[in-house]
């Protein structure tokens, strides 16, 4: 692990020399002549926390543009699932590679995934130096022996990167996983100290079907099963009433808000103000490329802010700094990664963005420009766990 000195970079509102030793930020006010094996000239750039994408299906990059402009149920059952049945492990590796490259290019260092053949995705994450929480996906349609294999995989997992990849237990949703399996997943996650990643209340159809089958709404149903707890990451949570927001907050559930996917599939509008008032922990995800159609968290951050303002009728809802926190430190915190802020002692995850571009000028307010004006093409350098993954927009992997 090389030491890195980033000289003359804009940190908050002033120029600084940022020193990274090993995996952590050693100093954010180092002398210009500090010794380091690698020196980056940060002149004309700002250092910011990178993105932590809390809901993704990385290999679905292979379905980019394959089926657009239709409702979720039809899209899923008539296009996505039949396509996915034909995917091989090699396909999943290539889809994951495309995803990982796109994520690094757009300033993301971590993603929480839910897919199949996770060893293929893990190999690519390891190769490119990112972080990931890879979901071992459970569905009723899998055979008993497949389910047993998945449980064994969770129990026997050894992280090949020594700390950058964890697994999560990922029951797909309440409409694809029955009560017994949901509870088995919950017990497994708690026993192994892992996160449980699940789609919750994404569409009104899911809520209506749940009422018909279980006599209650998805959040109440999961709570009745005892599944909700601080280890749960609930993707979407679009259709939640006030009491459900209170339940999610009380149980310490993390919400993965996916504004682009919700808008594109017209699934509904995440009630950000309600979730915030209840004290929910809100993070940001892209969902899969097939419903986004990219993995660009900067774009996602802008959509989140605009959607929250539009839906509440209040332009003060989700100000720029809050949108940035949701996309960065909140996601990092949710997954127990000691990063997400540029500060001494924290794990050295960072991006350097170019300021000498039209969309970043004039520089009245760095965060405002980054959230509302820029595009992710200005990400010049990406650092994860004290290692440079991209510099001058070129990947640095061996
Ligand atoms: Zn999803």
What does this protein look like?
It is a single chain. The protein is of the alpha/beta class and 398 residues long. It folds into 2 domains: 102 residues, Urease, subunit C, domain 1, CATH 2.30.40; 284 residues, Alpha-Beta Barrel (TIM Barrel), CATH 3.20.20.140. It is built from 14 helices and 17 strands. The longest helix has 17 residues. The structure holds zinc ion. The site of zinc ion (ZN) has 6 residues, from loops.
In short:
The protein has about 400 residues and is an alpha/beta fold. About 35% of the residues lie in helices and about 25% in strands. It has helices at about 70-85, 90-105, 120-130, 145-155, 180-190, 205-215, 220-225, 240-250, 260-265, 270-280, 295-310, 320-325, 330-335, 365-375, and strands at about 5-10, 15-20, 25, 40, 45-50, 50-55, 110-115, 130-140, 165-170, 195-200, 230-235, 255, 280-285, 350-355, 380-385, 385-390, 395.
């Amino acid at each position: 692990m090389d030491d890195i000195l980033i000289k003359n970079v804009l940190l908050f509102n002033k120029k600084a020399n940022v020193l990274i030793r090993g995996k952590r930020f050693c100093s954010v006010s180092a002398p210009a002549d500090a010794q380091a094996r690698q020196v980056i000239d940060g002149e004309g750039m700002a250092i910011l926390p990178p993105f932590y994408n809390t809901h993704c299906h990385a290999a679905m990059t292979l379905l980019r543009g394959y089926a657009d402009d239709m409702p979720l149920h039809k899209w899923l059952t008539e296009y996505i699932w039949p396509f996915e049945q034909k995917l091989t492990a090699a396909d999943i590796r290539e889809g994951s590679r495309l995803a990982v490259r796109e994520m690094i290019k757009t300033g993301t260092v971590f993603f929480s995934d839910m897919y199949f053949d996770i060893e293929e995705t893990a190999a690519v994450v390891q190769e490119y130096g990112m972080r990931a929480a890879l979901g071992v996906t459970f569905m009723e349609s899998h055979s008993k022996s497949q389910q047993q294999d998945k449980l064994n995989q969770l129990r026997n997992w050894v992280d090949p990167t020594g700390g950058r990849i964890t697994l999560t237990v990922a029951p797909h949703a309440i409409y694809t996983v029955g009560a017994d399996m949901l509870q088995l997943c919950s017990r497994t996650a708690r026993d192994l100290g892992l996160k449980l990643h699940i789609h919750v209340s994404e569409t009104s159809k899911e809520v209506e079907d749940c009422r018909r089958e279980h006599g209650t709404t998805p959040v109440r149903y999961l709570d009745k099963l005892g599944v909700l707890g601080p280890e749960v990451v609930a993707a979407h949570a679009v259709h939640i009433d006030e009491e459900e927001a209170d339940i999610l907050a009380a149980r310490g559930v993390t919400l993965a808000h996916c504004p682009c996917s919700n808008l594109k599939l017209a699934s509904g509008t995440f009630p950000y103000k309600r979730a915030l008032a209840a004290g929910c922990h809100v993070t940001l995800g892209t969902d899969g490329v097939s419903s986004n159609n990219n993995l660009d968290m900067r774009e996602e951050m802008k959509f989140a802010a605009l959607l929250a303002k539009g839906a509440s009728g209040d332009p003060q809802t989700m100000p720029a700094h809050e949108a940035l926190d949701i996309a960065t430190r909140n996601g990092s915190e949710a997954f127990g990664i000691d990063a997400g802020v540029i500060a001494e002692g924290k794990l050295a995850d960072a991006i350097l963005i170019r300021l000498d571009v039209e969309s970043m000028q004039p520089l009245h307010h760095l965060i405002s420009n980054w959230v509302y004006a820029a595009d992710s093409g200005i990400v010049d350098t990406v650092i994860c766990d004290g290692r440079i993954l991209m510099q001058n927009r070129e990947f640095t992997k061996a």
